[in-house]
Design brief:
heterodimer; A: mainly alpha; 9 helices; B: mainly alpha
């Protein structure tokens, strides 16, 4: 496994991302990753708050048009995240908090799909009175908030591995 | 610039950050959360003006504005903490950082854009229009600019610690 990870890290593309002084390399990929996470977490939060009863004037049905945007943002981040991971494979793979972040993202995506298919599905929307949120919608909304918040916290902590290993020092 | 830096510097905040290893990372988490809340709100608002998500009235969507304001407030507080309590230097390290300067410029432009949106009456028009209506072109231009400005704020914010890369790519 570690040979495989080392091979990724030593590849031409990964080396370029990591070592190029160009603003089109590591920093652009990192910036795209941050823009994507802001859209995913922000828009998911807006949707979740609506499902939990905040701003009930906003109709549910048109909110489903946010999902294609969320999917595009997710794929932007899957690709940019894969490239960032390739550049620092051995370091990232050794951080437990990185894998915890991956687990929360996987769960967040499952919840996002469930929201789209179980709450924002045309047949479901048509079967309940206008504006009424099915019970599963509230549970999924809480799950969505928890998953994305935990992914954010875990993601930030990948920059501070020494905090989790109890070694002193400011980075 | 020196004077502004001296005025902004807060040794108390700096000492707190240096004394608590969790302070900076936790402030960063709030900065990211605030960014997400702001961008999520702005994103929904601007995309609706641009024609995505017709069926949602702008009047109802504008009720989400407080969420964006909370996000901005979180980032103002944590951002001031980063600058005034810079644990590795002084506020001037930020003030003279090109990426930071461009980030502040874009926040200013986004603010001016928002101010124009409200004082010129465009906001009143948009918020009064029916749920399925198409927004006027001037509103669409403002919404497009808003998205560009805020994504630019994220870009240059992320570049603050990679200012050397930015300068290198500009040939300096």
């Amino acid at each position: 496994m570690s040979d495989f990870l080392a091979a990724i890290e030593d590849s031409g593309l990964a080396t370029w991302i990591r070592e190029s002084p160009s603003a089109l390399a590591y920093t652009l990929i990192l910036s795209v990753h941050v823009m994507g996470l802001a859209l995913i977490i922000g828009m998911s939060t807006v949707i979740a708050l609506r499902l939990l009863g905040y701003v009930q004037e906003v109709p549910l049905a048109p909110l489903k048009k946010a999902f294609p945007i969320l999917y595009v943002a997710f794929w932007c981040n899957a690709i940019s995240g894969l490239l960032l991971f390739a550049a620092e494979t051995s370091k990232m793979a050794s951080f437990p908090v990185f894998w915890i972040k991956m687990a929360f993202i996987a769960a967040g995506i499952v919840v996002m799909r469930a929201l789209r298919n179980l709450v924002f599905d045309d047949a479901v929307l048509a079967s309940v009175a206008v504006g009424v949120v099915p019970a599963i919608g509230r549970k999924l909304a809480y799950a969505s908030l928890v998953c994305w918040l935990c992914a954010l916290v875990a993601g930030r902590l990948t920059s501070y591995p020494e905090l989790l290993s109890n070694s002193p020092g400011f980075q | 610039m020196e004077a502004l830096s001296e005025w902004l510097a807060s040794p108390a905040v700096g000492d707190f950050i240096r004394g608590h290893s969790f302070a900076w990372p936790i402030a960063e988490m709030f900065h990211y959360l605030g960014m997400a809340l702001l961008l999520g709100t702005v994103g929904f608002f601007d995309l609706r003006v641009l024609g995505v998500g017709k069926g949602i009235s702008m009047g109802s969507l504008s009720k989400f504005v407080p969420l964006g304001v909370i996000g901005f407030g979180l980032n103002l507080i944590t951002g001031l903490m980063f600058v005034t309590g810079n644990p590795l230097g002084k506020p001037i390290d930020y003030l003279t950082n090109l990426a930071f300067q461009l980030k502040m410029l874009l926040i200013l432009l986004a603010g001016l854009n928002l101010l124009l949106f409200y004082v010129t009456g465009v906001a009143r028009n948009v918020e009064g229009m029916p749920a399925d209506a198409d927004a006027p072109p001037v509103a669409k231009v403002m919404a497009g600019l808003s998205l560009v400005f805020w994504l630019g704020v994220i870009y240059f914010g992320r570049m603050i610690m990679y200012n050397g890369t930015l300068l290198y790519s500009m040939g300096q």
